Amino acid sequence: MAARLKQCVVRRRDGPEQHGVAASCLRELRDKACGVLAIDKPITLVLAEDGTIVDDEDYFLCLPPNTKFVALAKDEKWSSKSLDSGTSWLSESVDEVDSAAEKWKQLARQLKDDLSNIILMSEEDLQVLIDVPRSELAEELAQSETKVQVLQDTLQQVLDRREEERQSRQLLELYLEALKTEDSILSKAAEPEAAARKEMDVVDTGTSSTDTSATTALSDQVLTALKEKPAPELCLDSQDLELVLKADTAALASALGWDKQKAGALQSACDQELSKRLQQVQTLHSLRSTSKGKKTLPWGDWPSAKRRK
């Protein structure tokens, strides 16, 4: 099962600039805070409201979503001035601080309009809705807490299925890579000169494919996901999938530091994932149109939260 991400807000001791960060553990939060705040390790994380040091994993996991942290560099210490700075920071950036709350409400409204939007959401969006307190989500959706619990369980199942699919693809890639390595060893043993020429061709192709200076319209966050996530098409929402498909293959390869063949394979995977999601949405809409004129997917008929084995 995928580790749950906790939405947090971090800032430097004397700086008003704050950043939203999602982390599944305290170590990951420290690493991401160092990155977004440009602070050298090691750092100490303290609660922005009172300076409580957060160095225990269990304590971190008990904190509510959107907890605000101050990152202290090696020789820095929290003081009441940090609190004053934090108050000023909050008053000057209310919209940004509340962005996490506004985000889940926007996502909830999407589900209120059409539950099939679950299929089109990114993994991050799904996790945001899972982490919302049940009572607050029930109030926003105008549904009972029992039905919202079923909904959140369903969201978790969707998230779990994507992770399982990612792991399955990784195993398949490892198997295919092992076959490729075995074929390569046999080929080199039989035809060493041909294998050497083939290797030179691959090097030449890789060099030429990265010479392009074209750029893409993809955000840094999406590019990072494409480079670092296994089966990245599973973690993107449908809009980002469309942007990847619209990107020029050569420009995409240049931005990712890949050859065109690998970038083309990524676009093909994104195309398949987007087509699958749209087909699922179309199927739900078709079923809805035949259900005695009901305009929305009935909450009472939402599938059981128990997964079939």
Automatic annotation (TrEMBL):
<protein>
    <submittedName>
        <fullName>DNA fragmentation factor subunit alpha</fullName>
    </submittedName>
</protein>
<dbReference type="Pfam" id="PF09033">
    <property type="entry name" value="DFF-C"/>
</dbReference>
<dbReference type="InterPro" id="IPR027296">
    <property type="entry name" value="DFF-C"/>
</dbReference>
<feature type="coiled-coil region">
    <location>
        <begin position="94"/>
        <end position="168"/>
    </location>
</feature>
<dbReference type="InterPro" id="IPR003508">
    <property type="entry name" value="CIDE-N_dom"/>
</dbReference>
<dbReference type="Pfam" id="PF02017">
    <property type="entry name" value="CIDE-N"/>
</dbReference>
<dbReference type="InterPro" id="IPR015121">
    <property type="entry name" value="DNA_fragmentation_mid_dom"/>
</dbReference>
<keyword id="KW-0175">Coiled coil</keyword>
<dbReference type="GO" id="GO:1900118">
    <property type="term" value="P:negative regulation of execution phase of apoptosis"/>
</dbReference>
<feature type="domain" description="CIDE-N">
    <location>
        <begin position="4"/>
        <end position="80"/>
    </location>
</feature>
<feature type="region of interest" description="Disordered">
    <location>
        <begin position="285"/>
        <end position="309"/>
    </location>
</feature>
<dbReference type="GO" id="GO:0006915">
    <property type="term" value="P:apoptotic process"/>
</dbReference>
<dbReference type="GO" id="GO:0000785">
    <property type="term" value="C:chromatin"/>
</dbReference>
<keyword id="KW-0053">Apoptosis</keyword>
